[in-house]
Amino acid sequence: MVKEEIIKISDGVYWVGVKDWNRRIFDALIPLPQGTTYNAYLAIGEEKTALIDTVNPGFEEEFEEKINVISNLGEIDYVVMNHAEPDHAGSIPYIFKKNRKAILLTTEKGSKMAKIYYNVPSERIRVVRDREKIELGGKTLCFIETPFLHWPETMFTYLMEDKILFPCDFFGAHTALGTYDDDVEEIISLAKRYFGEIMMPFRNMGKRALDKIKDFEIRIIAPSHGPIYRNPERILNAYAKWTAGETREKVIAVYVSMWKSTERMVRTIVDTLISEGLEVSLYDLVTADIGDIAENLVDSTAIVIGTPTVLGGMHPLALFGTYLVKVLRPPLKYGVILSSYGWGAGAVRQVSEILASTKIEVVGVVEINGPPTEKDNEEIIKIGKQLAKKIKGKPR
Ligand code: FEO
């Protein structure tokens, strides 16, 4: 490896992360069509050197090689653990085995996790408090507690002189493409998808974190997944909207259909909503990429759920999709449930039970036996129009 392969993002600040081009699934749940990166950074001061986050297990040697081009693994003084999840902290045991002097900087909760997950002894951990600063010599690290972005222990690190924010997962995107935000044309869409998958359940915490950094001068945002933002305004503005739960005149429709009856019902309402001027995204849960669904949940105002009854309840794929909607906690306001059964109903009751624990107001339900009749279609169109009216009349 040569020096030219290491990316300098500012004077004395280097990207030493790795690209995982072939990873296709995260948390055994989230599809990664473009792979991902585990970004880590070296901040070299006049007196001390800090490594900000590490990389996923399996990439330790490549990581070490990169660090050694710029510095020396054995010379690192601090390892900042912004987040304890193994994709960012999983190489700590390797680093600490090779470097006998480095101290881990993390939050109180992070300290407990470092001991449990990575066997870091207490004497090698320094707990940093909110707004605490550590001098590297001409470079100052400032730590900001930002819990639940994405686990309870998470924090941001701000490099004051360089005006670089290292927020770990927050502002991330799962893609191995590009180095900087302007290298990746669809970066905001990828970031939105990531937000929907990872950050949406913690929207309020995200909002609080944005508030905490609102007076910071930020020149670069260097997250731990995806490109580095050297134009931070765009992603900051997008996050302000997403964390606030700002929705558009938009509906997401998800369904499963065994003999096309439920699908016909869903298509009838989708056509109605489109003719009413709404933006609609439609997903068959048999083939859908759940990352696309998560992305569209970020700013949809309503959801249509279509499922047949199978063995007395929802189709298992619809159950999975509806449960996902519940746990991702999107800012949805309204819902419609459509269902066709063959010889026994039950799906609608189950969808209603799941949605009852959300803030979604169910504005219409149609449950029929067999294929939809003309009368059923009229009922669905009526509900579609009512839904459109609600969405357009929603308080802004
Ligand atoms: Fe990228 Fe929550 O780890």
Please give a quick description of this structure.
This protein is of the alpha/beta class and about 400 residues long.
General description of the model:
The chain has 396 residues and is α/β, with parallel strands linked by helices. It is 34% helix and 23% strand. The chain contains 12 helices and 23 strands. The chain has helices at residues 60-70, 86-89, 92-98, 108-118, 187-199, 203-212, 232-244, 261-275, 290-297, 316-328, 347-355, 374-392; strands at 7-10, 13-15, 18-20, 25-26, 30-31, 36-38, 41-44, 49-52, 78-80, 103-106, 125-127, 133-135, 140-145, 155-159, 164-166, 220-221, 250-255, 279-284, 302-306, 309-310, 313-314, 334-341, 361-369. Strands 1-2-7-8-9-10-11 form a 7-stranded mixed beta sheet. Strands 12-13-14-15-16 form a 5-stranded mixed beta sheet, with no helix packed on it. The protein has a 5-stranded parallel beta sheet with strand order 18-17-19-22-23, with helices on both faces. A hairpin with a 2-residue loop joins β20 and β21. α5 packs parallel to α7 and α10 (316-328) packs parallel to α11 (347-355). The longest helix is centred in the C-terminal third of the chain and has 19 residues, at 374-392. The chain is elongated, with a radius of gyration of 24 Å. The structure holds MU-OXO-diiron (FEO). Residues 83, 85, 87-88, 150, 169, 224-225 line the site of MU-OXO-diiron. MU-OXO-diiron binds at residues 83, 85, 87-88, 150, 169, 224-225.
